[in-house]
Specification:
Rossmann fold; three-stranded antiparallel beta sheet; binds S-adenosylmethionine; single chain; seven-stranded mixed beta sheet; globular; alpha/beta; 12 strands
Length: about 400
């Protein structure tokens, strides 16, 4: 092991944790009992539980096949081509240039996974999980992009020893090195590639923010790690009274500049190229947003960014942090807890960042000086959870004492 990743502390033991331990140990003994499996399948009251557990385990074992079925459908453009236009096997074999006998296996697998559905006259149409794939280009791009991660993880133990040396680490030029190379053409290509992917995949996150938080009290938003500016341009349409500042690395803001000009937003948006590792954040905004930025970076850098955000805000200013956060918290897991596994590994393959719980991020915000730190409830926490903090209008206690 030669790469220094953060090692966050895990929750300590409380009195209730002791009882939980005893209960979990008892459950483990029951699960391990040789006759429990047959007994519970024979009992109509417990059968569903054992079936569900077995199904979950089977899904874990076969997850790789599921992702590959998904990737094959994306690469064959099946979701877009079947949207409102179901087609039969012969027609699809002609379009995809695959033998009907093998294509049928793919189509039936996609049906089994809810991606496609069988329609009348032997035709295949979109299933409930296929519809969003036909409508949102960003999902297809993320599926294609995940291929890099799965390549890196092909041998999981080798990956754990070398996670920072794979294709994903290479994809993200800023996530390891303190200074990313922006001068050579290859380096510039990388900034364009990831910025396009981020713009394509940001839609769902932006919707979560816009439908959960009122921007009416603000006048100017500084978006830090703004990328090509999808959040800024959608917020500009949503809240016409706002002006914007965008902060990101110089090659990324060069892309953003073209985008802002094309959207007719140049008057309302000022661009501030720089690095939050080396430069202060510009002043002038009363709301600073950090969308999918903190999880890319180690704890020390996140603290630095939050401190710089605090320093750049006026008294009474607000910080809004939105990104995927851990769903499995010490007090109990949410239904979405399994998505944590994906983000733990994605962020490990990407660089020095990590998936944090909302509480960890809230503690970091408070340590930077923010008060009234709170979670903003949102409808789809898989895409992002949202945190808010204020730069308090109250005088710090020490100053208050010296004033009196
Ligand atoms: C994961 S992307 C998120 C972009 C956008 N906020 C979104 O949600 O799509 C992280 C952004 O942080 C920017 N970034 C990374 N390191 C940075 C640094 N040191 N200073 C300024 N921006 C940085 C990247 O260029 C990228 O645009």
């Amino acid at each position: 092991m030669s790469h220094p990743f953060d090692l966050p502390a895990v929750a300590g033991h409380s009195a209730s944790a002791k009882f939980k331990d005893l209960w979990q140990a008892q459950l483990e003994r029951w699960y391990a009992h040789p006759s429990l499996y047959r007994w519970s399948l024979g009992n109509p009251l417990t059968r569903w539980l054992t079936r569900r557990r077995t199904r979950k385990l089977f899904d874990l074992m076969s997850g790789f096949v599921h992702s590959q079925v998904l990737l094959a459908c994306v690469r064959l453009d099946l979701f877009r081509s079947l949207h409102h236009a179901p087609a039969n096997l012969a027609e699809l074999a002609r379009r995809t240039e695959l033998a009907p006998s093998v294509l049928q296996r793919l189509l039936l697998s996609a049906v089994a996974l809810g991606l496609l559905e069988q329609r009348s006259q032997g035709r295949f149409g979109l299933g409930p999980l296929g519809v969003p794939l036909a409508q949102h280009e960003g999902i297809a791009q993320m599926i294609e992009h995940n291929h890099l991660l799965y390549q890196d993880m092909q041998d999981p133990l080798q990956f754990l020893g070398n996670a920072w040396r794979g294709s994903m680490a290479d994809y993200w030029p800023y996530a390891h090195a303190k200074t990313a190379s922006t001068s050579d053409a290859h380096g510039a290509d990388k900034f364009t590639r990831y910025s396009e992917l981020m713009a394509a995949s940001q839609g769902f996150v932006v919707q979560e923010i816009l439908s959960s938080y009122f921007f009416s009290e603000h006048r100017c938003v500084l978006d830090v790690g703004a990328g090509r500016g999808r959040f800024v341009s959608e917020l500009a349409a949503h809240a016409p009274h706002l002006n914007f500042m965008m902060f990101d690395l110089p090659p990324v803001l060069a892309l953003a500049q073209k985008n802002m000009r094309a959207k007719g937003l140049s008057e309302r948006v000022s661009l501030h190229p720089g690095s939050f590792l080396d430069d202060p954040l510009p002043q002038g905004a009363d709301l600073i947003s950090l969308v999918r930025v903190a999880h890319d970076h180690p704890d020390a850098v996140v603290r630095q960014i939050l401190q710089k955000a605090y320093d750049a805000l006026p008294v009474g200013g607000t910080i809004l942090l939105a990104e995927p956060m851990a769903q499995s918290e010490p007090e109990g897991s949410s239904d979405d807890a399994s998505v944590d596994a994906y983000f733990h590994f994605y962020l490990l393959a990407m660089g020095d960042g990590r998936l944090r719980t909302p509480q960890e991020l809230m503690d970091m915000m408070q340590a930077a000086g923010f008060t009234h730190v709170e979670r903003v409830p949102n409808a789809m926490p898989i895409h992002a959870q949202i945190l808010l903090g204020r730069k308090s209008k109250c005088l710090p206690f020490e100053i208050e004492k010296s004033v009196n």
